Amino acid sequence: MELSQRITNITGGGSDGWDVFLKARAMIAAGTPVIELTIGEHDIRTDPEILNAMHRSALAGHTGYAMVPGTDELRDQVAKRIEDRTGVATERENILITPGGQAALFAAHMAICDAGDDAAFIDPYYATYPGTIRGAGARPRRIVTSPQNGFQPTVDELAVGTAGARSLLVNTPNNPTGAVYSAETLGAIADVSKDNDLWLISDEVYDTQVWDGRHVSPRSLTGMKERTLVIGSMSKSHAMTGSRIGWICAPAPVISHLITLATHTTYGVAGFIQDAAAFALSQGPEVEEQVAAPFRRRRALAMEALAAQNVVRAIPADGAMYVMLDIRATGMSGDAFADALLEQEHIAVMPGESFGRAAAGHLRVAMTVDDDTFVDALSRLIAFAKRLA
Predict the structure, then answer these.
(1) What is the overall mean pLDDT for the chain?
(2) How far apart are CA 327 and CA 312, in angstroms?
(3) Spatial distance between the Cα atoms of 384 and 375, rounded to a whole number of angstroms
(4) CATH classification of 62-283 is 3.40.50.1010, yes or no?
(5) Is the pTM of this model over 0.70?
(6) What is the pLDDT of residues 236-265, one digit of tens each?
(7) 5-45+286-384 maps to which CATH number?
(8) Helix axes 271-282, 48-59, angle to 10 degrees
(9) How far apart, in whole angstroms, are the C-alpha atoms of residue 267 and residue 68?
C-alpha cells in the first residue's frame, strides 16, 4: 500500500522551507525565550469589533452550512472593494469566498492547469508556491530573478520562463522581498501573458501594505481581465489570519467551475466568519490603514538602523510586512546564518533559501513585534553579522 505521488511529492523531496521556524517554536515550547521574526503574523490581534460581529452572527444562528460560493453580502463587499481599488467593474459572479488565500491559490491552479502542465512563478517566492502547484498536479517552473534588479522579473526572464507554460503566478507587493512591481514590470507581465496565451494568477494579499510606489492589479491592464485570477485575503489587511477567509476574483465562467470544485472539497466557509469579514470590509479603508501603520513605521526604523553600516544590506522594501536583508558579506548562506542567529542570539528569521535560489545569502525579517523589540533584534542581528564579517 503506497500513498499517491501527488501527496508524497508536494515538497519535491526536499525541505518545505520552515525548518528555522519549527526549531524556534520547539525552543519556545522548551522554555527558551525567542524573538520571532519569521511568519507574517501581526503582533496585534483581530479587532474586538470584528470578533463581536462574529459572535453576534454565531449566536443569531449562522452556524450551519453557508452557501458554497460565499454569502451574497460578503461577495458583494469583496467585489465593491476590488472595483473601488482597481477601477475594474466587478460583480458578485466574479467572486468565490475561500478558506484563506492559501486555499484560493490551490483552487486557482486546479482550475487552469491539467496534470503535467508547467506552471511558472517568480523566484524568490512564498514558500508554499511550488508545493501548491505540485499538489494541483502541475509542474512548478521557477523564473529566477536578481537582487541587482530588486528581484523584479525582466522581460527576457519572463519570456524565457513562460515559454510553453500554462500559467504564471505573480505576487506584488511581494513576499518575501517587499518589492512592489513597477509599471514596466507589470507591462512585461501583461505582454508575456497575452503573447504566450497564459492564465495569470495574481496574489494580492498585501495590497494594503504599500510604503513606496503604488499597487496596480494586473487585472486592470488592457486585455488582462479575462485571463487573470486575483487572490485576496482578510489575513493581512484586517489581522484575521486565524479566521481563514479569502477569495478568488476571476471571470464568471471560471468562478462557476470553481464553485463546483469547492462543493467537492471545502464546501464553503463558516457563515459567522463570513459575516465578520463583511462587517470588517464595511468599516472602510481606514481600518486597513490602521492595521498597516505599524509595518510602515517599522520599515522606517529598519532603514535607519541599516543605514549606519554596510555589512547587512537591505533590498528596497516598498511593501509588505518584511524586509529582505543581504548577508552575503558574512560569507555564510542564509540557512547557516539563520541557524547560528537562533542558536546564539535566540532571534528567529527566515533564511532566503526558504524562498528559492534567487534569495540565497539573504534573510527575510518579519516586522511583527513591537517597535522596541524589533529595533533591538535588528541591532543584534547587525552586530552578529559584523562579528562574522
Answers:
(1) 96
(2) 5
(3) 14
(4) no
(5) yes
(6) 999 999 999 999 999 999 999 999 999 999
(7) 3.90.1150.10
(8) 140
(9) 6
